[in-house]
Amino acid sequence: MTSTKQHGGLARPSLGARLRRGVEPAVLLGPGLLFYAALVAAPVLLVTGYMFARRGRFGGVEWELSLDNFSRVTDSVYLEVFRESLGLAFVATLLALLIGYPTAYAIAKLPPRWRTVALVLVVVPFWTNFLIRVYAWIVLLNSQGLLNDLLVGIGVTDDRFTLLYTPGAVVVGLVYSYLPLMILPLYAAIEKVDEDLLEASADLGAGRVRTFLGVQLPLTMPGVVTGSILVFVPSLGNFVVPELLGGGKTVMVGNLIRDQFLKAQDWPFGSVLAMIVVVLLVLLFLGQAWVTRRVEGPARG
Amino acid sequence: MNAPLLEVQQVSRSFGDVRALDGVSLTIAENEFFALLGPSGCGKTTLLRSIAGFEHPDGGAVLLGGSDLLALPPNKRPVNLMFQSYALFPHLSVAANIGYGLKREKLPKAEIAQRVDEVLETVGLTAMAKRRPAQLSGGQRQRVALARAIVKRPRLLLLDEPLSALDRKVRAEMQLELKRLQHEVGITFVVVTHDQEEAMSMADRIAVLAGGRVQQVATPLELYRNPANLFVADFIGTSNLLPGPSAGQHLVVRPEDVRLVAPGAGRLDGTVADTQFQGGTSTVAVDVPGQAKPFLVTEHGATEAVRGTPVGLAWQHEVAVGEGLA
Ligand SMILES: Nc1ncnc2c1ncn2[C@@H]1O[C@H](COP(=O)(O)OP(=O)(O)O)[C@@H](O)[C@H]1O
Ligand SMILES: [Mg+2]
């Protein structure tokens, strides 16, 4: 009897095997979980707590229940900052999409060997320090800079333009910084689209524009949404680009939050601002999951 | 034969060193069920794609109803292609997939809905109208692809290995189904296949392709009875091959044309090597001295031949063919 139990193919796995099966995921997930607990969950909890406290006189917080921080957000000064940040991040995202889609499309249609080369080239700027790359734009955009030299040189204008320290410069900086984050998911989505589907669309009588709008774009929508979020999110929170290229005249939410913590020493209000951004982002990601499911999953109704 | 609908004239297409199509000429009649038959890689898909407009021949002409087809882009050709992969739009429902081509014709919404309903009925998928392609079986997907193509009422429907993705049983059903549909909708069908039985059972006429060249165009019966060359004789059905009357020629003798007779009374003598009873027929394999392969004979019912006994082989019908496939 006992021997059948040991040799039978359907015998229950040994205790050791069962134990290992339970322990293994824990071991594999452990470092990641620890990392997130310490560096994501804890700060979020802390910030959530700060939101309901009063500001300390020299930074920090006084643990005294208060809802003042929330009502302050509705102050028109802050609403204006949110409006402008959202506007700039939106324009930057739209531009990145308009530049990124044709780029990603062209890369996806390259012969396989050149695709890898092109993708590496897209990512290369990330290997250079972010600050240095933003500084480079100051050199290009200032009134004595290369771009003005060029415009005067080819006789477009005699007067030099004010390019630097404008919202436009901020948008340029944001697009430049985050364009690779747009191109990569778009490339992945475009590359997945079966060429037969585009041909089938033409076969059924659709022209190029119709095929793009009716087949190509819907099938690459997950890439469009992912890329847009990856550009929109860091653009919204960015405070280096507005400071360097916007000359401090353009204040974005990122600047505002940083100032609450480092200059105004108002941690509770900074926490509320930060949490608004976090909630916004969570909503965006839920939207992305919804779009992806709609394209890839079964139809409803 | 009805009036010619499609004329393919001396069409060639090369990919680097590979001559996928090498001077192909064909005439396909109105309302015909035409099959392009040949082994994998012989250029069948390239020919269909040239007619549909996704491949551009290096030379030659393609006429539809007498007018030049090659000058038109794919979306302007009154021809539809059913893709080997079906190419159903994964983000659209079955009904929207089928309606896609009608929308491009800017038809009124009500008419589109009505025609989609009709064709869903024809292919028996009314209950699946709201599903996505991913929720269908292989056979159902194939029928959606077919419905999407015929709902456009093209003058010519091209089908690239429409049944190859299906398992054997569904396949036999769909062969009959395709034939029935072709009658019902009255559209000229050009079906590509590498399966000779499939081509024989469905098509009015068959073009046998090999190495980018047309070997023979004929009715299934004609192909079987009078193969134009050795390639066709070998590719279609079973044949016994004997040295021909002149050099480079072969005699093709079909197994069912041969009778077993007393030794010395026939044209060849041999020894029965094996017998197989298949129900309606039996196959007798006869070893003939000097022949590498046994000579096959088909007899009705059970055979009286006994293994190891000497027999004679007699026949009337035979075809002398050249090598073909230059
Ligand atoms: N786009 C292409 N590029 C290179 N070679 C091709 C291409 N399309 C087809 N071929 C070659 O042309 C020949 C015929 O191919 P195809 O028409 O697909 O054959 P079939 O459909 O009969 O199997 C094959 O040798 C194939 O490798
Ligand atoms: Mg093929």
Question: Notable features of this structure?
Answer:
heterodimer, A: MetI-like fold, two-stranded antiparallel ribbon, globular, disordered N terminus, B: alpha+beta, Rossmann fold, OB fold (Dihydrolipoamide Acetyltransferase, E2P), binds adenosine-5'-diphosphate, binds magnesium ion
Structure description:
The complex is a heterodimer of chains A (301) and B (326). With 301 residues, chain A is mostly helical. Chain A has a single domain (74-300), classed as MetI-like (MetI-like fold). Chain A has helices at 2-7, 15-51, 68-73, 76-108, 112-123, 130-141, 146-153, 167-192, 195-203, 208-237, 240-245, 253-262, 267-296, and strands spanning 54-55, 61-62. A two-stranded antiparallel ribbon of chain A has the order 1-2. In chain A, a hairpin with a 5-residue loop joins strand 1 (54-55) and strand 2. Chain A is globular. Residues 1-9 of chain A have low confidence and may be disordered. Chain B has 8 helices and 18 strands. Chain B is elongated. In chain B, the strands form 4 sheets. Chain B has a 6-stranded mixed sheet, with helices on both faces. In chain B, helix 2 packs across helix 3 (109-123) and helix 2 (94-104) runs parallel beside helix 4 (138-150). Chain B folds into 2 domains: 4-225, Rossmann fold; 240-325, OB fold (Dihydrolipoamide Acetyltransferase, E2P), CATH 2.40.50.140. With 326 residues, chain B is of the alpha+beta class. Bound molecules: adenosine-5'-diphosphate and magnesium ion (MG).
